[in-house]
Write a structure and sequence with these properties.
The protein is α/β, with parallel strands linked by helices. The chain is 32% helix and 21% strand. The chain contains eleven helices and 13 strands. Strands 1, 2, 3, 4, 5, 6, 7, 8, 9, 10, 11, 12 and 13 form a 13-stranded mixed sheet that branches. Helix 8 links the parallel strand 10 and strand 11. Helix 3 runs parallel beside helix 5. It is globular and about 60 Å long.
Length: 346
């Protein structure tokens, strides 16, 4: 329904207008009382519901900044974990049950300290208190959480673009399409052979302030055997196990994108299993799959219900950007933001 403006979408427009008014009011209230961190903050988020690829972008940003001399920390909501009134830090354990699946994955992939709480400002303050050497914060999935002030914004979209261009529930958007123009970068996450989505209508954006754009495609980099911890580069895994048909399972926003990546990398998939986002892949569903390797995502691996199943391999994917230099630009922009902050505090 959300891909076009049909009759069902049009009938829901009054609710969409109400959602837009209430959402805009909430965003303005958050911005008026926003907490300003003592270090630069970069937000990675989206305006489209469902998985667009924020997690691999967050990991790539964290790794790139660390390689350039930064000491990043991650703040997130902690979706899927019962957080409680106080922020929860990765210092006490980085598993998915404590932090949520995506923060746990980011912590495992980067080693950066992570703090989670629905109020991101509380998470940020707790992280900085526990890790005072942190000099940049990356807010994972925090675009609509305006109560945490930010210096830079990265919006991640995928091949759906803005869908039918309408707000929830008449469309797939949390904010109007024009919101894209206020971002600093627009990263479009595409499957192996997926075309670029249609451009946002010119009337919806500010032509004088368009975000810098970059395309991201994920490619397999390696695979880890869950039961033993054995890790293989992708070419080695393909040579050893990839000749026979395999199964794949995914509990992410768009499982078909994971399956398409595997097929593009030469894997013959005989069976695929889709699980709702953030849910663990059920052990009984895995038992129903045929003999042979079962490929899953690292996000699924951190919350897998059957980690000792000898067929399970978690596939690590590395992003390939159409313009790798955008991370150098991000580094420079953050250094400028840090310099402004020191000048303001002087």
């Amino acid at each position: 329904m959300w891909s076009r403006r049909g009759v069902p979408s049009t009938l829901l427009l009054p609710l969409s207008w109400l959602y837009g008014r209430l959402s805009a009011r909430r965003l303005r209230a958050g911005a008026r009382n926003a907490w300003i961190a003592p270090v630069p903050v970069v937000v990675v988020g989206n305006i489209l519901v469902g998985g667009t690829g924020k997690t691999p972008v967050t990991i790539a940003v964290c790794q790139a900044l660390r390689a350039r001399g930064w000491r990043p920390g991650i703040v997130s909501r902690g979706y899927g974990a019962a957080i409680g009134p106080e922020p929860r830090l990765s210092d006490g354990g980085g598993d998915a049950a404590r932090l949520g699946d995506e923060p746990a994955l980011i912590h495992a992939a980067t080693g950066a300290p992570v703090a989670v709480h629905p109020r991101r400002a509380l998470a940020a303050a707790a992280l900085l208190a526990a890790h005072p050497d942190t000099d940049v914060l990356i807010a994972d999935d925090g675009l609509q959480h305006t109560a945490l002030a930010r210096d830079l914004e990265i919006i991640v979209q995928d091949g759906r673009g803005v869908g039918n261009g309408r707000l929830l529930p008449a469309g797939p958007l949390r904010e109007p399409p024009g919101r894209l123009a206020r971002a600093d970068w627009l990263v479009t996450h595409l499957a192996a052979d997926e075309p670029m989505p249609p451009a946002t209508p010119a009337s919806s954006v500010d032509a004088e302030r368009a975000p810098r754009t970059v395309v991201m495609r994920l490619r397999p980099e390696g695979a880890t055997h869950l039961a033993s911890g054995r890790d293989l580069p992708w070419d080695a895994w393909r040579a050893e196990l990839g000749a026979a048909p395999c199964s794949a399972a995914a509990g992410i926003g768009r499982p078909e994108r994971f399956f398409a990546m595997l097929r593009a990398a030469g894997v013959v998939l005989s069976h695929t299993l889709r699980v709702p986002d953030h849910q663990a892949i059920p052990a009984d569903a895995l038992r129903d799959l045929p003999p042979g390797p079962i490929l899953i995502t690292p996000k699924d691996a951190v919350k897998c219900a059957a980690p000792h199943d000898p067929r399970l391999w978690a596939v690590r994917a590395a992003p390939a950007f159409s313009d790798p230099g955008w991370l150098d630009d991000l580094d420079r922009a953050l250094r400028e933001a840090a310099a402004r902050g020191r000048a303001d505090g002087a």
